[in-house]
Every structure is written in C-alpha cells, then in structure tokens.
Design brief:
CATH architecture of the largest domain: 2-Layer Sandwich
CATH topology of the largest domain: 60s Ribosomal Protein L30, Chain: A
Number of strands: 12
Strand order of the largest sheet: 1-12-2-8-9
CATH superfamily of the largest domain: CofE-like
CATH class of the largest domain: Alpha Beta
Order of helices and strands: EHEHEHHEEEEHEEEEHE
Shape: globular
Number of helices: 6
Distance between the termini: 37 Å
Length: 275
Amino acid sequence: MQLTPLPRIPLIQPGDELAEVILQALSRADLQLESGDILVLAQKIVSKAEGRLVNLSDVIPSPQAKELAVKAVKDPRIVELILRESREVLRVRPGTIIVEHRLGFVCASAGIDHSNVTSPLPLGEGPGVKETQVREPGAREPKASNEDWMLLLPENPDASAARIRQQLEAASGARLGVLIIDSHGRAWRLGVVGAAIGFSGLPGLMDMRGQPDLFGYQLRITLIAVADELAAAASLMMGQAAEGTPVVHVRGFPYPLAEGSLQELLRPRSQDMFR
C-alpha cells in the first residue's frame, strides 16, 4: 500500500471546492487517479470549506454551560458550543469534557478545535466568504483575534465524503473512496490517533468471522475497523502540527472498496463498558 501526502494544499477558506483543490494537488504530484484509490482528508479542511467556523464573540453561554465551565475550568462560551454539538456529557474534569457527539461517537470537547484555525479572509480576499462577514461602509473592523475562532466538525461527514467522491469520480472516471479523519483519544490508552469520522466508497468494518487463521482455526469474533486503520496510517503522513499536508492519496488498500458509513464503527451503547 502506498500513501502519498499531496503537496502545497492552500489554506482552505469557506466556500472552497475541495475536489478541485485535490485535483490540482494530484496534478502537481504527477498522480493520476485510478479505480481503487482512496483520498484521505483531514477534518479541518472539510469543516473550513463548509464554513463551520464560529466566533466566540457571537456565543452566549447558557446557565448549564456556565455551571459546567466552572467544573471543567474552561471558557463558558466554548462549553456552550460543546453542548450544542453533543447528545450527552459523559465525563468532566478540569481541562477535559468527554461527550457523546451528535454524530454518535464519544470524543473530547465535541471535536471542537482552534489549532490551525484563523479568521476567514475579509470580504473580497477569497472565495466563499460568509454573509456574516459583510460590513456596512464605515463600520468598525471586528477586533476578534484568531483565538476567538473555533472550528466545529462537519455537519454530516458521510455526506461530505460522498459529495467530494462524486466530484472526483466525475472528473477522473475512476471508482474511488473518500475518508474524512480526525484525531481522537481512547479510553484505555494515552495519546491521540487518526480515526474515521465519515467516509464514502469504502468499508468501515471487515467481518473476518468464519475465516481460517494461520493454523486453520475459524475466527469467531474478529471485526477489523479498516477505515480507522487507514485513518491512523494517513494521520502519520499528515502530522498533528504545522506540516500542512491535510490530504493523502492511498493506492493498494488491501480490502475491496464497498459502500460504507460511519454507523458501522459506532459501538451500541448496550455494549459500551465505559459508560
């Protein structure tokens, strides 16, 4: 399997067409899309393109957010965003809020982040500037700093992946997969790893039950989270800081492409031993 980070991806702004950005990066890398290829995208560029930026100056914390902020030692405005993006708060301690995200997975802070996030370009300096950035003549320039901008996860990552896949397949004529990933912690180990939060055109799980092992015994419980395994591999190529490589091209994925969705990877609550 070959994983190739695509070079010189520009800073993404709201309204940018990621399929076009990816096609241009593939051309710079002298790569032609082939059937079976997969494009892995960092969540941040998808969220930015979809305008999922929120300025804290526009957030009014609820009484619940203020109370939780005291326990978590966090800005109540950030806590308000976490609550809006969550189904349930599961654990709280100073510096950490663990929730069940509205998409169904468990994560810290509802996936809300401000690393590698800056304010959208002012009107006239880039594509897709949100309507809320339009200012009346003579109006004061907003004083919000980059620290005031927060980035939410995509509204529907599966749908985002499907849309980008459709555009890439139309342009290339190839049968592709698209995977959107984010960094998640785990209940039983330290550190974050790349994990799938949405995908289209590839499986989430491979059921190996009934398959023989090396010695001919039939596997009984083995389910492989292949989308998460690929997410972790691509995350190594992307990095976690200032590397600037949010798209990875994958060739030679060792499982057949198939229609899949995030729901495959979500453990039913009745089987969750950590709740």
